[in-house]
Design goal:
alpha+beta; Nuclear Transport Factor 2, Chain: A; Glutaredoxin; 2 domains; 4-stranded antiparallel beta sheet; 9 helices; elongated
Length: about 290
């Protein structure tokens, strides 16, 4: 059975250079590779269920907002039989007659009515030049972030009126992430609220990962994040489960490959560093 969901980038490979550190970044030890594999397997099983569940909120919500004809209903049932791994709300008619959209979260494809032919790629409206597939992804990103909730983010808010909100996937050891954070006051002064989520590019069981967890466990997370981004060491604490793994898996599902990665309120993914003034101009031009 064809699995259109395969091929996900799992991030940088774990090597002796980037993996296997102790929880305290100041103490370096070689990892036990068997334990690391067990950790990653558990991460994949448990966190992926949470991610897919939150992303399906969007698909489920949109699945009841459009009407289908009897023929479309019959076609969609046939496609479900061809792709039994798909949920009931993961199939919908596309703008092209006889072609259906199937997907999970940001992974969208198109399939013929008989389920035989599968098209991977983005669908454009030639008249408006709009990327219809990306518009659907944007909606999925926005809904997924809403499902996460601000209680598991680190937020820097303007003292005055808030005019825009961005969500930034950040790596504490990323140079351009640090540059962005050095200008956090400028973003806030322009009315832009910055919501941080963690995306340690080196992956689980690495210094960057543990630094993120230490920041989350600090008494004042905003101060701790600023300290960490200036190279200062944040004291190690164990506060139980942190959202680092959830953030990381969500970032992977968004297709994030580098940091900083900015998500606008619309769900648009803006890769890389963008300065405060330029970002404001871009957001307000949309």
């Amino acid at each position: 059975m064809l699995d259109f969901m395969t091929g996900r980038d799992r991030g940088p490979a774990q090597t002796a250079e980037n993996g296997g550190r102790s929880r305290n970044p100041r103490v370096r030890v070689w990892s036990n590779w068997r334990n690391l594999r067990i950790f990653r397997n558990r991460l994949n099983m448990n966190i992926s269920r949470w991610i897919l569940g939150s992303l399906m909120l969007w698909l489920g919500a949109t699945g009841v907002t459009y009407a289908v004809t009897d023929q479309e209903a019959a076609d969609m049932q046939l496609i479900r039989e061809q792709f039994p791994e798909l949920g009931p709300s993961a199939i919908r008619p596309s703008p092209i007659s006889g072609l259906y959209e199937i997907g999970m979260g940001m992974r969208l494809s198109y399939v013929s009515a008989d389920g035989r032919y599968l098209i991977r790629g983005d669908l454009y409206d030639a008249d408006t030049e709009e990327n219809l597939t990306e518009m659907r992804r944007m909606g999925a990103r926005a809904e997924a972030l809403d499902a996460v909730g601000e209680s598991s983010m680190i937020i820097f808010s303007p003292q005055g009126k808030k005019t825009h909100t961005i969500t930034v996937f950040t790596d504490i050891d990323c140079g351009y992430c640090r540059k962005l954070h050095r200008q956090i006051k400028s973003y806030n002064e322009l009315g832009i609220e910055v919501r941080y989520m963690f995306f340690p590019r080196s992956g689980p069981a690495t210094d960057s990962w543990y630094k993120a967890e230490n920041v989350w466990c600090a008494d004042n997370r905003n101060v701790a994040l600023t300290m960490a981004k200036t190279g200062m060491i944040v004291d190690e604490r164990d506060c139980g489960t942190t959202p680092v793994a959830q953030h990381y898996e969500l970032g992977l599902s968004f297709g994030i490959q580098g940091t900083p990665a900015i998500i606008a309120e619309s769900g648009e993914l803006i890769p890389g560093y963008v300065g405060p003034d330029e970002l404001l101009r871009y957001i307000e031009s949309e």
